[in-house]
Amino acid sequence: MRREFFSARSAKKPRMNNLAEAFFALHRRGHPFIIPNAWDPASALVFERAGFAAIATSSAASAWALGYADGERVNTDELFASFARIVRVARVPVSGDIEAGFGISTEAAVRSAERAIEVGLVGVNLEDYDPRAKDVIPLEAHVARIAAIKARAAALGARLFVNGRTDLLLYELGPEESRVERTIERLRAYAAAGADGVFAPGTDDAVEIERIAAAVDAPFNVLAGPGTPPLAELARLGVARVSIGGAGMRRALGALTDAAEELYEHGTFGFMRERTISYGEFNAMFVEREPK
After folding, report:
1. Cβ atoms of 126 and 98 closer than 8 Å
2. Structure pTM?
3. Per residue of the chain (292 residues), what is the pLDDT tens digit?
4. Domains parsed from the chain with CATH numbers
């Protein structure tokens, strides 16, 4: 079965390599691009249609769409099948959030990366937060995981962009006064291990963002929030990539909540006058992406 998988991947390898090259080229310090986070083919097409050059997935939004909580609780067979559906319809590079690799061992992380390659992803986020221990994975262990993934991707002839992520800031782990310093230590180690980019969600502070971006010799990714500086300012701070995480899905569900409340509480249909994509327009996009 695995031989069939990799044989099928080899058949589409030129397209994947072209997408991978385009994805790597997007990452330039001081020239940030926004990579929106989709959770299914429909949301991916909305973002692609808007003009974005690449799409990522959101672990939270993907899990919720499949009926699971975030935090490595999702059924991984269902998750990677959902990634495959996004890749099938997308014409731009797609990077997948594989959380901590669905197991903290090096073997688990490498297997998740293999599955990402199998379904056509050109990048992965690999975080160092273990949701079972509610703490970060030891530094040396996560460094080994990143190095092993890069080695396995190279052995398979795949260009896989590994975004090494630390969650010290996001989960406010350890002493506050040393949190940025320890974040930099980890991101430097991840870059030295072969990570193609680094990611530290959890700060909107311009001083902290600039300090981290300047200290690490790899493209720096931030997670946008309501207080995040605008893109022009992030460029000055040295950022290379901006994610939105599960915010897109939460915003969509906010609009759906408004519609649900109107339907239930008032029995009226005014929400249909709000901006929507027509049935014919959206259906035609999927017809265009059907396998030939």
Report:
1. yes
2. 0.94
3. 454 444 445 546 777 789 999 999 999 999 999 999 999 999 999 999 999 999 999 999 999 999 999 999 999 999 999 999 999 999 999 999 999 999 999 999 999 999 999 999 999 999 999 999 999 999 999 999 999 999 999 999 999 999 999 999 999 999 999 999 999 999 999 999 999 999 999 999 999 999 999 999 999 999 999 999 999 999 999 999 999 999 999 999 999 999 999 999 999 999 999 988 899 999 999 999 988 7
4. 2-251 (3.20.20.60)
